[in-house]
Amino acid sequence: MDELERALAEREVLEDTLTEHERRVPYRKIFDAIPVGLGVYRRDGLSVAMNRNSLDVIGGVREEIIGKFNILTDPASISMGFVANFERAAAEHTNITMPPTSYDTSGSTLATVDDRVVWTETTYIPIHGDDGTEYVVEFNIDVTSQQQAKRAIEQTQRAEAENMRLQAEIIRMQEETLRALSTPLIPIAESVVVMPLIGNVNGARAQQVIETLLQGVMAHRATVAILDVTGVPVVDTEVANGLIQAAQAVALLGAEVVLTGIRPEIARTLVELGTDLRGLVTRSTLQSGVEHALRRFAGARPSTLARKR
User: Fold this and answer.
1) For residue range 190-224, what is the model confidence (pLDDT) as tens digits?
2) Are 268 and 278 in contact (CB under 8 A)?
3) DSSP 3-state assignment of 220?
4) pTM surpassing 0.70?
5) Residue 299 DSSP one-character state
6) Which of 82, 168, 243, 278 is surrounded by the most beta carbons within 10 Å?
């Protein structure tokens, strides 16, 4: 009885300190009208107030929550970290703000009119009531739409990154296919390989020719590599040097390069460029180059083969 009388006396003192204007403020209506979620809990976790915005976010029914819902025993609140931050705010007597966190109403003991996942930026604020009761105010900003937009952007970015990766892979495969087509290596007999070149040859392609020849000679254990330039329209210094480098590289593996398809204008160009063709076996046609390679490999008499050209 003494405690009740003391509480009533304190309330009278408080009311005496309020102006007439303050006593007329419709605090309950303001609480409901605030456009963010507000919930008030006792220190033991029992819900004692929740405004309209908060109820709308979770799809809750006031009569099924106030005085019935306890945040400290709610599975969803525990698993999402709300309870831990509630307890920390109450224990440390300080405001605790959580990063945007999802809340699955379907796993909650809250009475709901529908099941949904909402994202909130939640702050817990400990306060003391006029009678000394400890409360924790839950301040919720609904950031569901922002989080959904963020995740949509992230998904788009991941999809774009995957598309770029696939495009890069396709380009890489196309380049490898083009390289293989531009410098094909064809084994025509045991220890004999042929590389027919078609189109212009630049520095990069000349290096590719050398690499493909070396790999082919090693893979097929070739003793003769025929390099046919019938389809090369122009032979300049870069091409001539590439041919010489190819011959020298193959010679280091113990094989011989036979250069075929040299037309008169190409021969003249090579002479004018002063190209050193020593170490290169030359034949006018691919057929004669093949005959040379087969004779070298098999040791057959020239009369058994077609006439050398």
Assistant:
1) 888 998 888 777 777 778 888 888 888 888 888 89
2) no
3) helix
4) no
5) -
6) 243
